[in-house]
Amino acid sequence: MPLDQAPRRRRRAILVVDVVESVRLMRLHEDAFIGRWRRFTREVQVELLPAHGGRLVKSLGDGMLLDFRDAHAALAAGLALRDFVERHRGGAQDPVAFALRMGLHVAEVIVDELDIYGSGVNLAARLAELSRPGDITISPEARDECVDGLDAVFEDLGEVYLKHIDEPVHAIRVHAGSLHPGMIQSRAWPVDRLDGALASVAVMPFGGLTADSPMGELIADSVIAHLSRSDSLRVISRLSSSALATRSLSSGKIGELLGCDHLLAGRCLAVGSRRLITAELTIAATGEVLWADRIESSEEELLSPDDPVTREIAWQAVRAILERSLRHAVNTPLPSLQDFSLLLSGMSLMHRSPPRDFERAGEVLQHLVGRRPRAAQPWALLAQWRVLRVTRGLCDDTAAEARHALDHTRRAVECDAENALAPAVEGFVHCHLLKDLAGAQSRLDRALAIKPNEPLAWLFQCVVDGFRGDGERAWNSARRAISLSPLDPMRPYFDGLAASAALAAGLLDDAVMLAERSLRLNRNHLPTLRALAIARVERGELALARELGSRVVALDPDFSLRTYMSGAPRGAAASTRERYSMALRAAGLPP
């Protein structure tokens, strides 16, 4: 870009790289360190950055400022940088061996030919200062563009204070690794045999339009809505398939990560005022095409309440997989792309850890229901936000939030009686906030009759099953929920409730694995801490259990076993609650 042109504001991933103890190395071995650093920087420019689509903005002699299009490319480059450092070591006694610490943030910055500017660059630098030698510390904005267990393994550090930044910043530490042993794989659990589904399918966002257009997500969302009406298919959540949409992965790898047999993908191209939709269904493991077609449409048709294009794609896909009819559904999509962008923003913010982002999600969804009061999905999501507000400890008035949530689900049902999320959330309100298991079960039955592939309905079902003391059913419900959305942004929440289901089933090893994985990304979730403490006691690990008990008391000084026992819903199995109470007493929880 010529310097006389105005710089542009862009959303970029900023990776700041610092050399640990560079001042000491420079003072003791100046010439050798400078020579080593120059060779290292040259290799980074020639080998590493082109492979990850990055740009060296500047090298300062003891660090680098790197610019990337997205966070998962920047994170991959950061992990590769650590390997590069090892190549430049001269052995155990090397006097100029150096280690790196890095910070990664995604933000709107001003970009020109020579530099990048903005507060986002400063935040990335402060995160680098927080890192230990060899560490990468990232922001929630960067974390949201990555997938835990695929790009790396993440550890929630909570909110920290950084130099020259007034407000606390949420920080996440990165551990290198691909799919770790604790990552649940659908193929390890015979879910298809449990639920009667004959096949599974993931719908990838359709490409072809501009990067900031949500049309591809909207088409995939509508196709999924139609496919999910079939009780003969297990349909993967769009939140999970979207997490892999921009990755250079084979169909076999995507199928492995999502635990599905088939992939449905396509493109949407602008041809004058019309839209040309191409779609193909493949066998994930082999890439073999089972069905493909091209359909011409208009943007108005794609946004219509009963869009014929996505309905036809779903129909043809099911015929190719199952060779039998698919029950159709009439959905009520939002009537503009701007509204759909707001919906995606609200969903994304609702699943972030910082409370300010979570509260912002409520503002976005409130604004959206004001704009489109006849659309069901925003109302259902706003009800879900109300429930999560209580479970996250951000609201003390449970009764008021329950009234608000039930009002939102009622409005969602009035807009679309076939919306499954509304009765699913309503079931959780009855279970968790109103303490009414019978009422919860009737709502969940309704949700699963409408949409047998609704992940949250199965997740809330595992909670109801656990309260009733049916551990085996709770565990099966939890497994199905996770298999339907294996890379869900709410994965810590899924894992925490699944840990309790495993505990109810007496599967202590699974309970510990799931609880620890949940807490690694949401470290202060009290129900998960309690579940892990119970599992530790029952495995005979009393010292570890008492450490967890101390954390529970520190986070919730008012907790007592008396209130815990009295807080069970009506109809809950007394024997299960007593079993847990005895374990919590052994973990040091007060009576």
Automatic annotation (TrEMBL):
- Residue ranges of domain Guanylate cyclase in the record: 13-128
Q: What residue ranges are annotated as transmembrane? A: none
What the entry lists under InterPro entries is as follows: A/G_cyclase, Adenylyl/Guanylyl_Cyclase_3/4, Nucleotide_cyclase, TPR-like_helical_dom_sf
Concerning CDD domains, the annotation shows:
CHD (cd07302)
Q: Which Gene3D superfamilies match?
A: ABC-type transport auxiliary lipoprotein component, Nucleotide cyclase, Tetratricopeptide repeat domain
Which SUPFAM superfamilies does the annotation name? Nucleotide cyclase, TPR-like
What protein is this chain from? Answer: Guanylate cyclase domain-containing protein
Species of origin reads: Aquincola tertiaricarbonis
